[in-house]
Amino acid sequence: MHLILTGISGFLGRQFADLAHAKGHTITAIVRVGHKQKYDGVKVIECDLVRNASLTSEMKSADAVIHCAADTNMSSRRINSAWSFNVRGTENLVRESKAAGVKRFIHISTANTLSGDESNAISSSRLPYIQSKIENERMLLQEFRDSNFPVVILNPSFILGPASQRWGSTELIKTMMSNRILFYTRGGKNVVDVRDVAAAVLNAVTMGKTGQRYLLVNTSMPYRNIIDVVDSSLNRNTFKLRLPDLLCNLVGYSGTALSLLRSRGSTINHVTMGLAMKNAIYTTPKAHRELGFTARPAEETIIDTVKSLSARISNNKPHR
Question: φ, ψ for residue 98 (rounded to 5)?
């Protein structure tokens, strides 16, 4: 198959590109203007998805579009950036896909737009990133209803796994590895492996039902348990202290107030701290049944993440 991919410079996009290439598929990656990196076996096209998306001719030969690119910053004040790229960019990509008659459009969203299962979509969020993803899903499903646009929406949770480069989501594990005193909240993360998500994305090209959402999630793990797995992987024992909810709320609202005073956003704010005190529980029979999605144990994913980060840190140390 010939696949059009956005977001190849991201964690999931790169993993998907490697997998699809290994399976014998041809890939055309749409990258931002000025992007310098090259990828083995991948044709690269520079394009401004927000201001000047002209891709119809390239898309006419494509079997599917895989839209992984997104502004994932969790700041409470990046509304213009998130809305511009995530919403306007997606709208333009949909327009070009419709003009080219693309057979399948795989949109990578987030589990944060849903509650419990695929039938329970949340209506709004105070975080621009999540709100932009909610709007994307509304737009795409309306396109499906209005014109039978062949969209499949995938909703992965917190993606970890082996990382050969600096990927945003693995910074959580890197922080845990770098400190011997760790503070944590009563919440946790629903950890899903990037390798399992990439496999589900590829399956969705031929197996997913259009007009449907699919949660790609795993068993949720409390932060304390994640730290314990990291400690065990490194054969060490850190000092761990759970922060009381009152202090978490104080830190969150202080971060929000500081961002208002500085007129710039902060990823530590009352909304993100509220999320950090939750442990989202999802069910995934739909993805298992219709996409063949399976999630390896979260502990295995965390151990492999620690191993890859340890190797990367070791390789980056200056030689004496």
Answer: -65, -40
| First and final C-alpha spacing in the chain | 48
- From residue 48, alpha-carbon distances to 89, 97, 191, 273 in Å are 8, 15, 32, 34
Contact by Cβ (8 Å): 75, 117: no
Residue 296 CB-half CA count within 13 A: 16
223-234 and 298-316 helices, crossing angle to 10°: 50
- The pLDDT of residue 315 is 73
Distance CA 301, CA 128 (A): 29
Rg (CA), the chain: 20
Residue 42 to residue 46: CA distance in whole angstroms: 13
Task: Choose among 223, 220, 219: nearest CA to 242.
Answer: 223
pLDDT over threshold 70, residue 318: no
User: What pTM value is reported for the model?
Assistant: 0.93
d(CA 133, CA 101): 24
Distance of CA 108 to the CA centre of its chain: 7
Dihedral sign for Cα 141, 143, 147, 150, please. negative
pLDDT in tens, 270-291: 878 888 888 888 988 999 999 9
